[in-house]
## 1
Amino acid sequence: MTTSSTMPDKGPIIILVNPQLAENIGMTARAMLNCGLYQMRLVAPKESPLSEKALAASSGADIILQNAQIYPSTEEAIADCDCIYATTARRRGMIKPIYTANFATQEIINQPQHRYGILFGPERTGLHNDDVCLANAIIEIPLNPEHCSLNLSQAVLLVAYEWYQKFISAPQQQFVKGKTEFADKEKITLFLKTIEDKLENSGIFTQPEKRQHMVINLRNIFTRCHITEQELNTLYGVINHLNIPNHSQKS
Amino acid sequence: MTTSSTMPDKGPIIILVNPQLAENIGMTARAMLNCGLYQMRLVAPKESPLSEKALAASSGADIILQNAQIYPSTEEAIADCDCIYATTARRRGMIKPIYTANFATQEIINQPQHRYGILFGPERTGLHNDDVCLANAIIEIPLNPEHCSLNLSQAVLLVAYEWYQKFISAPQQQFVKGKTEFADKEKITLFLKTIEDKLENSGIFTQPEKRQHMVINLRNIFTRCHITEQELNTLYGVINHLNIPNHSQKS
């Protein structure tokens, strides 16, 4: 487990304003750790981040809860930050830029010299206007307008997730194949020739057009699926085990 | 509330394989509705999607639970789909493409002619290999490798969120200003002239360099923050109320 002294302090500070339920504090800690965010601040929480309920709900993200800092007011919680975003689900007559979670987290990544804090309001009411107006911009997560009420920890999860995706820049697609390698084209060609010969001998190709059609389909299948050596061995095993009738020998 | 007959069927089908807890089925329904996904399938769930616990946890996403379809096996649940993704947190020696949630959902958006299903495994174990190998590709959500265990509904939320962002293509930034308009440049110039004159008269500019420095800063502030007419009126109100000493009159 990460210890307090080695806790990374990159990434925005997650500030929960007046959270009501210990479970939500715990689940938020879990979501933060899932996404590599370590700094939690709580403004006048109703329950302790170290309560049994919070610790249980964090599913092992104790480190976040143990290091959570508690403040009496939002102003004090944000005092050492130089840019604040406020998350809201409803618009409320503020004159303010509104960013998606995607856009806001890209801003955070683009400006590593700044210390960012992100405010999340209490479960039932969301942030008060007195808190929203302290923010440089609003984060509004684009959701189904017919059902946009998110659980507190899920709102944190989505923002933290957006940040982490940009922070790590994970490859968008990979191919896992364990210890085997892709079969090279020579092996694939040999394999295709083997089945084509076996089919030829079995007498399945009654008409030349049928032969061409089947051969092209088989070649497409076994090249498109980017077959590995391990899989090729399985296919040879199957083909050799099957007793494919050899009509050419019989005739 | 959306009724069954008008339920949109765009977007992938969310398939929970052997979910153990009714709460997670309910929370998943909520996450789906948050992100505009309506089609839930359950493979041999331990508890009913219409149980009290599931309905309570759905926070009003009953419509998803009422229309959830139950199947005895994964094969039957995916039978009418033509592309399946399996979500996993651990790699397990499969020879298979791995996509991020971002990449996989872009594929879904790019291929509207296909019916996609996304498999999510039971809470403790995740999907069995027997289910994973039915999938065209694996979705692996990039998360902190030191703490990548997600709650079931949160895994669904992240995938559903990624899909919805592409489905709606929300503007990444906006500016809300209610019924007021941005003040035009003439009004801003007049306002700046007003404060500069008042400051001039107050005797604050003891040195020409100081004057230039302050004036440039003030102009930068009030142009950068893209001020509205409503806010300009507030500023005029403040300035007119303040009794700014008029040294030039006194001298």
## 2
Amino acid sequence: MKSATEYLWFETRQPREYINITPDVAEVVEKSGVQEGFVLVSAMHITAGLYVNDAEEGIIRDIDEMLERLAPKGPDYHHHRTGEQNADAHLKSLLIHHEVIVPITEGALDLGPWQQIYYAEFDGQRRKRVVVKVIGE
Amino acid sequence: MKSATEYLWFETRQPREYINITPDVAEVVEKSGVQEGFVLVSAMHITAGLYVNDAEEGIIRDIDEMLERLAPKGPDYHHHRTGEQNADAHLKSLLIHHEVIVPITEGALDLGPWQQIYYAEFDGQRRKRVVVKVIGE
Amino acid sequence: MKSATEYLWFETRQPREYINITPDVAEVVEKSGVQEGFVLVSAMHITAGLYVNDAEEGIIRDIDEMLERLAPKGPDYHHHRTGEQNADAHLKSLLIHHEVIVPITEGALDLGPWQQIYYAEFDGQRRKRVVVKVIGE
């Protein structure tokens, strides 16, 4: 069995941003030399997420608006008694999920034609990290 | 390490359908010969999902109604400026998630007694694909 | 390739409870001897979930309130025609997701500083089970 582990760093300009990291993940997979296996891409923070969907600006706005509708930014969260202001970012991260697993087949990401891997930042403007871990052979 | 990769194809009659694919996944696992490992089941389209839950018609309707309530079909999505009409299907896919991982123990799916693997189609009536990938030994 | 499989049992006092199981998962990983790999933590019931987020009482209440808002307890579910009363627990489980995968790096859970693994019980007061499965080397 082979494995490889790399960390991607992000510091977004906006509080919420959606970044296509498919090329970065593909590069980790290629460098690993793994032909058949899985790659896990997982946020290491509790206010960011990962998802697989379309690289189309309209749907990205729709995703953002849905998450804001289901887990709105606002003052009335219990978490804010700690002094934090970002409970909505935690909740958005839980709804979108904080990790994806992509199969590796014949040495490449085995994605459908429209599938792209996105990093979803919900509380940005500071340095945050994602782990990319490959196992296989 | 062993691995196996198969693709399941679907073409549903309805725009939205929920299909129990547990026997198909179990068959891929059995053919793989893997005794201890993981099986990843992942939609290759951005308007379908995978989940694990109950094979009971009532809960399937409840799931469908919840997803329609949280991500309703409708005309007012940014994504529709591309000419598409299926933004709700993208959003439903994100809420339910597009993949599941099931453990393989002693050569079989290690599921609880009521757990079944479902393919959730949100924009059907055309050919779509799921990847089933086993790794283990 | 190495693997290890253990089952954690829960019987909560409350119908809904959120339990930090990070030490339990870390112990399974340590005993497995796996240095590089993945650990899958997956509910074996269809009315419980797993997630990774903050060990802070306020955010746990916020998560619970969001899930109750998006999938409220109530009488009007199709699933209840079977005699069950717990459709909301199924739906909450689907929204939070029933599994997490955590990378193992240098023999330990490769989590960010605030990331903790939680078992989310949505229909408790009876014995329920989670599978923890490690693969790697």
